[in-house]
């Protein structure tokens, strides 16, 4: 009850081509899986780049 | 590639950081309108302009995303981003004006640093002025300035969270980027080593969670993030 997590997704691009439905669905799956893995790396980068501040230590400490 | 979200062509990121007050905001600008989506979890979100991202709703494109500290107060930063975009004639043309679409989400960082200083519209505007496609600084920057993790034992045993980013190039050339503010109630675990990287500290040393579950799937509130992909 006490938390709020929000994920926004943005799609940009210059490629425009007709796709079969099956190709599109698998692309969405692949991109989604890649996005999740990329987000996980971003999370690790966040805490590893943090520095101690106002008396709160960081992973770097 | 510098392994962050600005590797995505058309994405620029800017921050406004207040180290003394322990808060800040981050704007993700889309140089061309991007198709946007959102997923809001948990019982206590602080968000703005998320309902319109429903797939069946009229508006399909967004012009910027704001991640901010200051809890619900910090959502004001999105107003400053809107002013910046309007000055640059960016927005949905409704005939009498162009309305920028700027979804936003805020973390609760009021307990870190000052509780009375929060990002406002001016801060959001300044973040836009700082936006760049160069490699972005990470950690105690922008919306990550006041972020903390490992709060299960209270403020005396928590650790610093922050802002992070990464990118991936897929085999077909698709670029995927992510930017996140990590403000987890729980601990952050490295999935490869299964070790706690940052989290609630044990008064006797180390972390209280010295034995995470082997599959590394502990569920923790993470914060707010934006992923962008470019085909």
Descriptors:
heterodimer; A: 61 residues; alpha+beta; 1 helix; 48% helix; B: 231 residues; mainly beta; 5-stranded mixed sheet; 3-stranded antiparallel sheet; 14 strands
What features would you describe in this structure?
The complex is a heterodimer of chains A (about 60) and B (about 230). Chain A has one helix spanning about 20-50; one strand at about 5-10. Chain A is about 50% helix and about 15% strand. Chain A is built from 1 helix and 1 strand. Chain A is α+β, with helices and mostly antiparallel strands. The mean pLDDT of chain A is about 90. By secondary structure, chain B is mostly beta strands. Chain B contains 3 helices and 14 strands. In chain B, the strands form 5 sheets. Chain B has a 5-stranded mixed sheet with strand order 1-2-4-7-3. In chain B, β10 (about 160-170) and β11 (about 175-180) form a beta hairpin. The radius of gyration of chain B is 18 Å and the shape is globular. Residues about 215-220 of chain B have low confidence and may be disordered. The chains are: A alpha+beta (about 60), B mainly beta (about 230). At the A-B interface, β1 and α1 of A face β2, β8, β9, β10 and β11 of B.
């Amino acid at each position: 009850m006490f938390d709020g997590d929000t994920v926004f997704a943005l799609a940009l691009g210059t490629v425009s081509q007709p796709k079969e439905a099956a190709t599109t669905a698998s692309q969405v799956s692949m991109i989604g899986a890649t996005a999740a893995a990329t987000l996980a790396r971003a999370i690790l980068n966040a805490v590893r780049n943090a520095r101690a501040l106002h008396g709160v230590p960081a992973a770097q400490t | 590639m510098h392994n962050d979200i600005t590797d995505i062509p058309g994405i620029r990121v800017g921050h406004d950081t207040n180290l003394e007050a322990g808060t800040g905001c981050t704007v993700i600008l889309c140089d061309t309108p991007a198709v946007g989506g959102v997923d809001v979890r948990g019982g206590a979100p602080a968000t703005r302009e998320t309902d319109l991202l429903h797939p069946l709703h009229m508006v399909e494109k967004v012009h910027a995303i704001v991640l901010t500290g200051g809890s619900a107060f910090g959502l004001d930063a999105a107003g400053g981003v809107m002013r910046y975009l309007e000055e640059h004639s960016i927005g949905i043309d409704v005939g009498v004006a162009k309305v920028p679409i700027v979804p936003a989400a805020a973390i609760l960082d009021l307990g870190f640093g000052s509780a009375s200083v929060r990002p406002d519209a001016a801060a959001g505007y300044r973040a836009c002025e700082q936006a760049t496609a160069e490699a972005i600084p990470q950690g105690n920057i922008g919306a990550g300035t006041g972020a903390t993790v490992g709060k299960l034992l209270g403020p005396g045993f928590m650790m610093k969270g922050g802002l992070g980013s990464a990118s991936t190039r897929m085999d077909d050339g698709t670029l995927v980027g992510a930017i996140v503010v990590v403000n987890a109630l729980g601990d952050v675990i490295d999935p490869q080593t299964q070790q706690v990287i940052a989290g609630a500290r044990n008064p006797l040393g180390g972390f209280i969670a010295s034995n995470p579950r082997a599959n590394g799937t502990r569920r923790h509130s993470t914060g707010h993030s934006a992923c962008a992909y470019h085909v």
